Amino acid sequence: MYPNPIQKLVEYFMRLPGIGPRQASRFVYTLLDEDIKTIEGFADALGELARTVARCAECFRGIEKKNSNSVCDQCAGNTITAILVVEKDQDLETISKTGLWQDAYHVLGGTITLLNEKTRVTDRIRALYDRLARRTKTAEKPIEIVLATSATTEGDATALYIERVLEPFVKEKKITLTRLGRGISTGTEMEFADPQTLKNALKNRK
Amino acid sequence: MYPNPIQKLVEYFMRLPGIGPRQASRFVYTLLDEDIKTIEGFADALGELARTVARCAECFRGIEKKNSNSVCDQCAGNTITAILVVEKDQDLETISKTGLWQDAYHVLGGTITLLNEKTRVTDRIRALYDRLARRTKTAEKPIEIVLATSATTEGDATALYIERVLEPFVKEKKITLTRLGRGISTGTEMEFADPQTLKNALKNRK
Amino acid sequence: MYPNPIQKLVEYFMRLPGIGPRQASRFVYTLLDEDIKTIEGFADALGELARTVARCAECFRGIEKKNSNSVCDQCAGNTITAILVVEKDQDLETISKTGLWQDAYHVLGGTITLLNEKTRVTDRIRALYDRLARRTKTAEKPIEIVLATSATTEGDATALYIERVLEPFVKEKKITLTRLGRGISTGTEMEFADPQTLKNALKNRK
Amino acid sequence: MYPNPIQKLVEYFMRLPGIGPRQASRFVYTLLDEDIKTIEGFADALGELARTVARCAECFRGIEKKNSNSVCDQCAGNTITAILVVEKDQDLETISKTGLWQDAYHVLGGTITLLNEKTRVTDRIRALYDRLARRTKTAEKPIEIVLATSATTEGDATALYIERVLEPFVKEKKITLTRLGRGISTGTEMEFADPQTLKNALKNRK
What we know:
CATH class of the largest domain in chain A: Alpha Beta
Largest interface: A-D, 53 and 53 residues
Helix content of chain A: 40-55%
Keywords (chains A, B, C, D): DNA damage, DNA recombination, DNA repair, Metal-binding, Zinc, Zinc-finger
Protein name (chains A, B, C, D): Recombination protein RecR
InterPro entries (chains A, B, C, D): DNA_Rcmb_RecR, Rcmb_RecR, TOPRIM_dom
Oligomer: homotetramer
Structural class of chain A: alpha/beta
Strand order of the largest sheet of chain A: 4-3-5-6
Organism (chains A, B, C, D): Candidatus Ryanbacteria bacterium RIFCSPLOWO2_02_FULL_47_14
Shape of chain A: globular
Number of domains of chain A: 2
Family (chains A, B, C, D): Belongs to the RecR family.
CATH architecture of the largest domain in chain A: 3-Layer(aba) Sandwich
């Protein structure tokens, strides 16, 4: 029904999360009314992403490829004393913007599935294990692993899974495992707070 | 347009929070298809509320009037060691259902307004002051006041206001003032967590 | 957990359409802060509804009971030339407010269920049949029955069901059956219009 | 904060309608986990759109550029008997998919603004005027112009504006102007129908 190049582009937009056929075609028609330079600039930016951005081989954040180095500046450094484990790139950004965390990260790329099948996330948890095996050899004191997964069923299941995988390091006192503090968060109305949150909020009162 | 008794009842339903004319008339027509006994039972339940329920003169929760006593069983007791200050009756219920709090409450009936005018809420904060003046005279150790207002702008403003009002008691070490612990709450996705919540969540990690 | 009279009233409010336990208890606590006169006025209005309002025995709209008469003024009149069949009391109100329809109504009290079981609605469709059997005897020309059910699956199914039930009258030319005109309605954006609506909108263009 | 190429691409995605910074960055990170071929394919599809798709010089729909021809097959034909005037490319698609309209279109590219300033839309209405001036010279009978703008305030204002602009052609009987039929549309519940829609639905009943 559409001209072919429109249809092809609609299909690319539909691969993006949350984009259905209607919104994808709205995108394409919006672009059609932009001048050609803009569309070409968009295409170039995509090409540049493909050529120059990769994931750090150690912490999996997105980095600009420089020379032949495949790890980010932070992971290239010698010492890491703490690692914040997050689900998504966006979580890393949210926390990074606050300036509250200066130490290393580990990006899981999502949460584990209920089927416990091998996925990108379990691969990256395995990579976290290997990373710690390597790093703890030379560390002077236990590395702190902060599990900063979301306070959702999936996030909690993922944190539990990681706790089990990393248990050997905890036993050997090579790492300490912590989880983010729970309580009422900005915007919470008491009437709608769940028992678990209330319990933590009362316990951590001060 | 409607028969008069329908119109009158529609207006009563519209006094309830969140109910507009459309929903109010839906209520009335639903009742019209109930049998007369049900409608009369509803009317009786309202009458009974008016006759037999009142607010405790000390903590302002809803109680059944018994004899001439105007305070709830808890406030009638001699000793109170801690008071949980909540905005609404529903907050009291939410917490009370968890069984996490066995001590006394103080129901504010809402939050203070930005204009700082005299309202039901400021009256009840004044009553809290008087309550403490009376109670701390005989208390053996400082009474803990837990400010359990919502983590909203209005809730925070109300907590701050109460802190200022109760400051004299704190200085004389007759009370201690605490606030609910903050952190990520059940359901929070890290990507959408605000800086203040993240800060508390990182600080309270364990 | 609540005082008994509160619990009882919460349960009455929960019988109203769309009202869950949370909102029901919000209603009761709102009432508790009203003065006693208001609550008693509410109870009286309910009592008055039970005593003085009923449904017209012929068209089923809500009417004030007067003397022993059980039909509305309109149905008490001798001649009816057209009947607008609506699902709900609120539909009657919506149309009645526009002043576009001066003739008689028939309120179904809902839509037929998919199970085609005997319900209030099928009873009232049967009553419509009887009403027509009686009215067409003396009518000088065919009575027009306008099926004004909603343009939803349920509304359409109900209209179809009524068409089948009233078919004998149509064959004998005692009534004419019409349905509301279809097309784009106020607020419709063309992008989201369904094929059936577009078809009618194009066919009825002018 | 992000690597530069990510930031640049985020900004391109943010030019798309309804896309904020959060969703734009989600798009980029999703792409980062696709293989390079896919990203390059996406870039190529954008380049192809820029090179090979344009708007028909007469009706403004999106078409593949062929040779030097700048009008679509339909506009290249000799005879046009009716033109359906739509706001957006998506409206054309919605209608075109139904197969209900086989004749010509005119895509406005939006609605007129309240300020009545010169915009793409007013340019295309001017182009419609010119198109008719040219086409009606050779037409054997009046061309029908169907104004198929949305049933919204903006759509109605745009239709009114076009009616004024095309009035001379109507007076000379060179065109006829029609609008889509109004009535209840699929999904409309009677309770929520507006008076204008009810009026049309009653008038067009059958």
